[in-house]
Amino acid sequence: FLFQMQMLDKFPMEGGQKDPKQRIIPFLPGKILFRRSHIRDVAVKRLIPIDEYCKALIQLPPYISQCEEVLQFFETRPDDLTPPKE
């Protein structure tokens, strides 16, 4: 959500703030409220919409898809390389 807000602030025209028809930044799938016992179910349900969001994001023009915020968003972190075994 914070990343999406950064993108909309940095690219207001592409985010459709002046003219919604001009929006090219994809919409982030909405939040889903869940109980602790439903974490996995919610993650599985959100997998496809989040994947579609990421694919749409990297297909944007290079001045957006290769901006610092996008590069940081997709940057590999140590935990990504050695995820928890649970």
Query: How many domains make up the coordinates?
Result: 1
The percentage helix is 40-55%
Mean pLDDT, all residues: 87
Q: Biggest sheet, in brief?
A: none
SS class? mainly alpha
Which range does the strand content fall in?
under 5%
Low-confidence stretches: none
* Envelope shape: globular
The CATH superfamily bears the name Phox-like domain
CATH class designation: Alpha Beta
Q: Radius of gyration, rounded?
A: 15 Å
Write a concise keyword list for the protein shown above.
single chain; 86 residues; PX Domain; 0% strand; globular; NADPH_Oxidase/PX-Domain; PX_dom_sf; superoxide-generating NADPH oxidase activator activity; phosphatidylinositol binding
Structural summary, described in words:
- This protein has 86 residues and is mainly alpha-helical.
- The protein has a single domain (1-75), classed as PX Domain, CATH 3.30.1520.10.
- Helices cover 50% and strands 0% of the residues.
- It has helices at 2-10, 39-58, 62-65, 68-73, 78-81.
- The radius of gyration is 15 Å and the shape is globular.
In short, what is this structure?
This protein is mostly helical and 86 residues long. It has a single domain, classed as PX Domain (2-Layer Sandwich). It has helices at residues 2-10, 39-58, 62-65, 68-73, 78-81.
Blueprint of the fold:
Elements: H1 2-10, H2 39-58, H3 62-65, H4 68-73, H5 78-81
